[in-house]
Specification:
By secondary structure, the protein is of the alpha+beta class. The protein folds into two domains: 254 residues, no CATH class; 172 residues, Alpha-D-Glucose-1,6-Bisphosphate, Chain A, domain 4. Helices cover 56% and strands 15% of the residues. It has a seven-stranded antiparallel β-sheet with strand order 1-7-6-5-4-3-2, with helices on one face. Helix 1 runs parallel beside helix 3, helix 7 packs across helix 9 and helix 8 packs antiparallel against helix 11. The longest helix is centred in the first third of the chain and has 35 residues. The radius of gyration is 27 Å and the shape is elongated. The N terminus is likely disordered.
Length: 444
């Protein structure tokens, strides 16, 4: 099949489009219905099923990341020919090229297909031909950028389980390079318009990831500054290349390097140790602070901004066996953590290592579950310790230390964000212990 915007993409009329496009859309619904039937389950044909059919399959079966990847690959296999025939339909009407771009976005594609089917023809003119060609090439660049984003997540995160330079640096750079070059290849457009196309491709690609529950809003927001910068740089290079050459294949060669980079990063994953500590002075003796430290009462101070971004935060702790080698359970916003006490000195020191921990993040998403591997195993709490020091005047200093491992590149970008989340949690629990200890002293 020829790509959108190619010379062989001849226009098609509304009758042919009405026979082909709805069939492509309904392929997704048929696949989900067959999946339910094979599992012996009844399907609920509600609005969610018609708008996001592949998402319904993932919700019902709670599939693994590999299963999510296969479902998403099927959605991509349907989206590309749908975009192709939609572009040919827009060519027949000589308008609606931007509506054709929306046919690849789940939940919106049905409305976009209906709008294109009802679009009337326009009188042909030389000016219309020139505008049509420019619009087709801009749309081709936009669709290429969207495809690189979703395929990048599909290959790197779901197939290889790699979150690194390839996904957060090289992929957005390639999005900018490819989108800008293809949009400018027939007739140069100004740089601000080119940049707008690049950012639109990134936004629509991110929206597709959210609607298919492959990423949540929180992760995309955190990655946006770095990814936007790289897309901007790539867009500038693609725009410059388009002014010097019209050879279409040159920038597309960058896409071929992405799988190799993803595979290399999966073979050699990063592991950066992060040590964080915070202290607080408390108007209570060490004995009172120790009682607060080992209390099972919930953590009272409200969670900070990192919690609003989706990072896990502590709710309470329960010591099952108060001794070295004993067990402690920490309840977090994302679930319970099983911990083993390594140091137990009442009134002085408490330390424990994490044996089993919940997800590090809870993604902001309209769905109950997001198929993003990075929420588990890529940010690990290793050990936490508390040390009490007696101060003059019946006061105490409580110091908390946390050791974690970060397994996401680029480390220089993600480490400050990890420090921010860890320090926020430590400050919150220290403030809680201060309030509990000082409150107990006042009551006595």
């Amino acid at each position: 099949m020829a790509p959108p915007g190619s010379a062989s993409a001849r226009p098609i009329g509304p009758l042919v489009y009405c026979m082909v496009a709805p069939g492509l859309v309904l392929l997704q619904h048929a696949a989900v219905a067959l999946g339910h039937r094979a599992a012996g389950e009844q399907i609920d044909a509600d609005a969610g099923f018609w708008l996001l059919p592949v998402r319904r399959l993932l919700d019902v079966y709670h599939v693994s990341p590999l299963g999510a990847a296969l479902a998403f690959a099927f959605a991509l296999a349907v989206a590309w020919p749908l975009a192709y025939v939609s572009l040919r339909r827009a060519s027949w009407s000589r308008m609606g090229f931007w509506i054709a771009a929306w046919t690849v976005i789940p939940g919106i594609q049905i409305l976009a297909v209906a709008a294109l089917a009802l679009m009337p023809a326009r009188k042909e003119s030389v000016l219309d031909d020139s505008r049509r060609l420019r619009a087709k090439h801009r749309l081709e660049g936009l669709l290429a950028g969207i495809a690189i984003i979703v395929l990048g997540v599909f290959v790197s995160a779901l197939a290889f389980g790699a979150y690194g330079w390839g996904l957060f640096v090289l992929a957005p750079f390639t999005v900018g390079l490819t989108t800008a070059y293809l949009a400018n290849r027939s007739e140069p457009i100004d740089f601000p318009t080119t940049t707008g196309l690049v950012m639109a491709a990134a936004a629509l690609g991110s929206l597709a990831l959210i609607l298919h529950a492959l990423e949540g809003l929180a992760c995309l927001i955190l990655a946006a500054p770095l990814a936007s910068l790289m897309a901007f740089i790539g867009g500038g290079l693609g725009w410059s290349m388009a002014q010097a050459t019209r050879r279409r294949r040159k920038p597309l060669l960058a896409v071929a390097f992405l799988p190799a980079v993803f595979a290399l990063e999966a073979a050699v994953p990063p592991a950066a140790a992060i040590a964080t500590d915070r202290s607080i002075e408390i108007d209570a003796p060490p004995a009172a602070v120790w009682r607060a430290l080992t209390s099972e009462e919930p953590v009272r101070p409200p969670p900070g901004l990192p919690a609003q971004a989706g990072f896990a935060y502590p709710l309470s702790g329960r010591i099952i066996s108060g001794r070295a080698g004993g067990e402690r359970v920490g309840l977090f916003s994302t679930g319970p953590a099983r911990e083993r006490i390594t140091l137990w000195e009442p009134g002085h020191r408490l330390a424990f290592i994490v044996v089993e921990q919940p997800a590090a993040m809870e993604e902001m998403s309209p769905y109950r579950r997001v198929h993003a591997p990075h929420v588990e195993g890529y940010f690990e709490n290793v050990e936490t310790s508390f040390e009490l020091e007696a101060l003059p005047g019946g006061r105490s200093r409580l110091t908390a230390r946390a050791s974690t491992v970060l397994r996401i590149d680029p480390i220089p970008y993600w480490e400050p964000i990890a420090h921010w989340a860890i320090r926020s949690n430590l400050a919150r629990v220290l403030e809680d212990y201060r309030l509990k200890a000082e409150g107990a002293v006042r009551r006595s």
